[in-house]
Specification:
The complex is a heterodimer of chains A (353) and B (57). Chain A has twelve helices and 13 strands. With 353 residues, chain A is an alpha/beta fold. In chain A, strand 1, helix 1 and strand 2 form a beta-alpha-beta unit. The longest helix of chain A is centred in the C-terminal third of the chain and has 16 residues. Chain B has no helices and five strands. The chains are: A alpha/beta (353), B mainly beta (57). At the A-B interface, helix 11 of A face loops of B.
């Protein structure tokens, strides 16, 4: 069997570049088409300098028919709200599509009005789209034609909280997600707040309430709890380029000990190749910290119990461009195509960075 | 020889040539244990004394 031909739509952004970085190392695929309206005709390395010597392909203009002819599977890495039209057309051609925008993450069309401020024009596609977290929906992803990759902070938080709800350990009325994220999480489009002078050194709470990732966290945790769940989420832009740390504050319904939590997390994520547990009494790495997973598809999870306040702090870290975007997308592709889930994703983290 | 960690339940490998008084460490959570009894059939450990790190700076 020949290589699977894949295309990347919107390949000039940070997520598109990360997809290319990971895909060039994938043993079973060939990158056949990459598109960018702004960079059409330009060589990849002029936009993503680190890829020089790895690819000599140029960006193409977006053409649905050409994608249909040259690709078996397409990643769409377009901004939120821009992706939905292309995804609808590619889906209509019968192609496998992995969307990295938010346009197909939420199941309830009303949630698009609530969290994104627009009516979803293709609500029928929302029920066809699978939320792309293999640790939650592997069997559905395997059969899916359309997979929607999760928000970077959402997936990082979800992976830490899921076991606590699945085991009925915590009060689902009081969950607080405190997230810190690096500058690449804001994408490659500049604004006044992204200039070095304004961005360097910040700890900027940029949406203290009602951040849009809240919607997908509530959706997915609600499926596990089998009831509606409300989350309080506060993200902060911090002074790193890549990386997310989520500090998830939860409140225990009953007393638990460290050994119980180890058992719950190990049981939940048994055989998951990209989950590591970090709660070490020795060494440099005692609790999750994105510094020690940059460039990899890992989500590191740790925990600590505050027994005087019945508070359980579940910590999780990821690289927002990998497990938070391109790595998840490739993991989803591997599941959809029946490949080894680690194909193209065996990078060890870069340290120090 | 194997021993379960008292803190996290992970399996600690105790080298065959280890002796009473030696410290073994859990690979998952880093807890230290002192070997207090060892024979061909069983091994007993107790939490080892350790000095905590000050993270307050």
């Amino acid at each position: 069997m020949g290589s699977m031909r894949v295309g990347v739509v919107g390949a000039s952004g940070y997520v598109g570049g990360e997809l290319l970085r990971l895909l060039v190392g994938h043993p079973k695929i060939e990158i056949s088409t990459i598109t960018s309206r702004q960079k059409a005709g330009e060589y990849v390395h002029r936009v993503h300098p680190s890829l020089k010597g790895f690819m000599d392909i140029t960006f193409s203009d977006m053409n649905i028919d050409k994608l249909g002819d040259t690709c078996d599977l397409v990643f769409t890495a377009l901004p939120h709200g821009k992706s939905k039209e292309f995804v609808k057309d590619l889906y209509g051609l019968g192609m496998k599509v992995i969307d990295l925008s938010a346009d197909f993450r939420l199941k309830n069309p009303k949630d698009y009005v609530k969290w994104y401020g627009w009516e979803h024009p293709y609500p029928e596609l929302l029920s066809k789209s699978i939320y792309g977290v293999p640790e939650f929906h592997r069997a559905e992803i395997k059969k899916a034609q359309l997979v929607s990759c999760p928000g970077c902070m959402a997936v990082t938080s979800l992976l830490a909280i899921k076991p606590l709800i699945a085991n009925d350990l915590i009060d689902t009325e009081h969950i607080i997600v405190d997230s810190k994220i690096g500058s690449s999480g804001a994408g490659s489009k500049a604004n006044a707040g992204t200039h070095h002078a304004m961005r360097y050194g910040v700890i900027r709470p940029y949406k203290p309430v009602k951040h849009r990732h809240t919607g997908e966290i509530e959706q997915e945790l609600g499926l596990i709890a089998k009831k509606s769940i409300r989350i309080g989420m506060t993200p902060h832009a911090v002074n790193i380029v890549r990386g997310i740390l989520t500090t998830n504050h939860t409140f225990l319904k009953r007393a638990v000990h460290e050994i119980d939590l180890w058992k719950i997390y190990r049981t939940t994520y048994k055989n998951e190749p990209f989950i590591r547990f970090i709660r070490d009494k020795k060494g440099l790495y005692k609790f999750p910290d994105p510094k020690f997973l940059i460039g990899s598809n890992f989500c590191d999870i740790g925990f600590e119990v505050d027994d005087e306040n019945q508070r359980l702090v579940a910590l999780s870290a990821s690289d927002n461009l990998v497990k938070g975007a391109a790595g998840s997308a490739i993991q989803n592709m591997n599941v959809m195509l029946g490949y080894d889930e680690m194909d193209g994703l065996k990078q060890t983290p870069i340290t120090p960075v | 020889m194997k021993k379960d960690c008292n803190d996290c339940g992970a399996e600690i490998n105790v080298p065959g040539d280890s002796m009473v008084g030696e410290i073994v460490t859990c690979p998952d959570c880093g807890a230290n244990f002192e070997i207090i009894e060892k024979s061909e059939l069983k091994i007993e450990v107790k939490p080892a004394e350790s000095i905590g790190e000050d993270w307050g700076q």
